[in-house]
Amino acid sequence: MMSPEEQNTSCHDLYDHRPVARILIPLAYSIICPVGLLGNALALHVIFLNITKLNSITLYSANLAVSDILFCLSLPLRAVYYGLGFHWPLGEGLCKAIALLFYLNCYAGVNFMTCLAVDRFVALVFPRRLAKLRKVKNVRLVCLAIWLVVLAQTLPLLTVNLTRTEPDSSITCMEYPNFEGLFEGLPYMLIVGVVLGFGVPVATIIVCYSIVTRKLHLAAKSNRLTERSGRTKKARGVIAGVVFVFLVCFSPYHIDLLQYMIRKLIYKPDCTELRSFQISLHITVCLMNLNSCLDPFVYFFACKGYKQKLMRMMKWHVGTHFSSVGRTSPESSGTGDVLGTRRNTGITMNTIREGQ
């Protein structure tokens, strides 16, 4: 019977989808990277402008933004790798560095999003009994613990070879077949990793969301003002945003990984199944990378300053647009009155903006 490594060597068509992947994946990363950097940099900017008003939710949001920015910094070289048709010419050391940056910030982000959901749960369900958990001093310790634990979980990546020379002389980096044969119980390790790194956080978030939603529903029945309160909308928005990011970004990858590992425990998947798994991994990893773009929507509900800053930027953009239309309009033409009205609207909006 062939070992997993020998089976992978005999499968020569694992990267036959490279003509499509070398176009679509770099294209996706070229969008995800700048959007993620911009959105998360804006969040950090807003948080540091109000550094004296730090609280639990802004601290978790700041750490999530940092993890997303570091995550985005790993994407350009990954885009180059895919653009070269799954070829990594930059050496084993840089491959390990990118892998560490990628997985460290991916799972740090998962934990910080979980903390955001738990924080909203505690604020609404146990506002006095568990108030100590939301103190800035304790939240800083929680954030530090998350970084240290996730770092300890990802450091073993530095002890194994993450690159492999394929039969066509290309060098792959961070691909699943490169891991097979390196660890004795790889399926068991990955199943445990999925349960701890994804299953536990998503179960925690769903429980928090369910209890908070039920509590708010019961409170709204007795007092209609509760349903309209900013605190209620904020809690719903934060937890719903976190649930959405988990479902869209993280669920496909982890479910895909879990189902293949379970199959490996039952029987030996053939080359066709391994090739299909490879293709699905590349798709689901792209979806997972999308979380760095979607997290700013969580900040929109979590951080009041972020929402206000974003709305001011949008108002400035709209005001500038209408002003430029007004300036270029022909005043003597038949459409002059209409465009003149737009110009006045733009001036009015600019006046409002300047007065804020």
UniProtKB/TrEMBL annotation:
Its main location: membrane. The keyword Glycoprotein does not apply. Residues 39-299 form the G-protein coupled receptors family 1 profile domain. SUPFAM superfamilies: Family A G protein-coupled receptor-like (SSF81321). GO terms for molecular function: G protein-coupled receptor activity. It is a multi-pass membrane protein. InterPro entries: GP183-like, GPCR_Rhodpsn, GPCR_Rhodpsn_7TM. One of its GO terms (cellular component) is plasma membrane. It is found in: Cell membrane. Pfam families: 7tm_1 (PF00001). Keywords: Adaptive immunity, Cell membrane, Disulfide bond, G-protein coupled receptor, Immunity, Membrane, Receptor, Transducer, Transmembrane, Transmembrane helix. Coiled coil: none annotated. The chain crosses the membrane at residues 23-50, 57-77, 97-118, 139-158, 188-212, 237-255, 279-302. GO terms for biological process: adaptive immune response. PANTHER family: G-PROTEIN COUPLED RECEPTOR (PTHR24237), G-PROTEIN COUPLED RECEPTOR 183 (PTHR24237:SF7). Belongs to the G-protein coupled receptor 1 family. This is G-protein coupled receptors family 1 profile domain-containing protein. It comes from Cirrhinus mrigala (Mrigala).
